[in-house]
Amino acid sequence: MNVPSPAPCHVNVAGVGKQSVWGLRIIAGTQLSLWHYSKNSSIAKTANQNIVAQLLLVGFRFSLLARVTVDLTTSRLYDPHTSPWALIFHSDFELSGHLRPEQKRAVEAVLDSRDLAVNVRGAAGTGKTATLREIDRGLREAGHEVLAVAPTRSAVDELEKVGFRDAMTVSRLLEAQEPQGALRGRVLIVDEAGMVSGRQMQSLLHLAEDQGARIVFSGDTRQIPSVEALDALRILERESGLKSVSLTEVQRQTNSFYREAVKTMRHSPEQGFAQLEKLGAIREVSIFDRGQIVAELHREFRAEGRDTLVVAGTHAEISQLTDAIRQDRKEHGELGVGHSFDRFVSLQWTRAQKEELSNYQEGQILQFHRDTKLAKRHESMEVVRIGPESLVARKGTGEEVNISPKQTRAFSVYERQPIEVAPGDSLMLTANRRGAELRATNGELVKVSSVDGGAIRLEDGRTVPANYHEFTHGYAVTAHRSQGKTVDTVIISADSMKNELFYVAASRGRSEIAVVTSDREQLRESVGVSTVRQSAIELTRKQLSAHDPEKGHHVDLMTGVNRQAGQQIGEQHSSVPTHTPEPEKTPHVGAEHDLGGPSLGLGL
After folding, report:
1. Could you give the CA distance from residue 171 to residue 345 in angstroms, rounded to a whole number?
2. Burial class of residue 351 in the structure, from the number of CB atoms within 10 Å of its CB (0-12 exposed, 13-18 middle, 19+ buried)
3. pTM of structure
4. Which one of 74, 136, 369, 553 is most buried, counting C-beta atoms within 10 A?
């Protein structure tokens, strides 16, 4: 691991309170403890653990600045009320009467926070988006510019719908110089922050620090985390002391029994599952009948005018359920005459895989996502030959071109699959597109109104262009795909689904839920298993406890380091008097505890 040794932090502490002195100690001590940990831990040997250490180093600088702000590079001490970080409270700001008391408290806590970063934690369906919109209004009325980002294009679309006009994806912010420069002095809102990976979170924190920006996270670590390594938001909450204000009152479910089951499932999956059983939502059927049962439920709910989504545990089951639902719809005259189309299925190759010519096969599709001398953006080619030093691909015009491994950054690799599309079908778009001919979002569910002359026309008036092949049927999706969606009724079909996945799937519905399984006990058992990935510090704590339980227990759960050792190291590297008594411990902000203690100070 290549974590640089931190410079000693010498500061003048004249006039600084005891609480602030302790904060200085912990900042210096924590920086050195994490550096020592990263150099010596038998666990922290990979690039991912390096990210954990770096993430926490900058995370500490953000979270411990509520009472004192220290520039660890220049060793200057700032007064949080007069520093460039401080915002000014806007006493004339009136909260919207449409907010619930819980939401108002969350908005006030964020706008009055002095931390450089604060988190709005909310269970599924608690009104996080409405709360963010009010925070945005308060900041803008006080004269502060706001930029909102989210990890996925679909989440960005939701932000745009509620008024965040300049919202963008996290990846775009981290890749483009222009929005990075515009971030200076702004407040950065990060929605769906629980899905931000460790590497992206580290980059976001460094960027905000460099640009003098404050951060408001909005996320839920109880839902599905990022696909990439590290559960960054959870690590920051547990190990860096990031303060969170919680929204706990679920509003999405209109059925009180359903709502209570979803709320219970968040903390006790087994009890939540039992409540769904008591509600009559769990149906155990033969595995051979499951597809037909789901199809019949789907038809019954639609006949009542309910928007319905099916969530399944595997892609194989999604395919089987889709076939069953479409066949049922055909038999009941709900689908028109089907037409065959080609759909492109991404192979999800890495750059290294794309550079290895032996991986390619004839018939594969190269889809360009940027303009090049060989092809325009969104243009596709078919691989016809694989040479020793290049690929030979054929354009739609019939022209053949040579493509070298150096050009692999410009395209993605797909395989072609046939798909039948009929009027009345539900489709899911699987690629983002922002063009004059089509605006599409990955994961968007649409309905087909007609199929004429090879053109797919949608009920919302859009037409799918001939060069857009990234779509599939939209009747059943994975739990990952369901996150962020809200429907009238949700049907879960699975024999096994882990805690966070089941919670996300079960919380999508407003009025009703149906769970169809062929093994009730296996599903119950799997729902009790978490997908949470432990960080290096958590694993180190376990290792310490295994060898020395007393030492392991002394590792602070908020900082991830030994509190006593951190203070001793801090004393050696600062001018803080060694006789300063330890302050009262800051109360742990639990999953469902409102933010307490002194003002946090985003300070509007």
Report:
1. 22
2. exposed
3. 0.70
4. 136
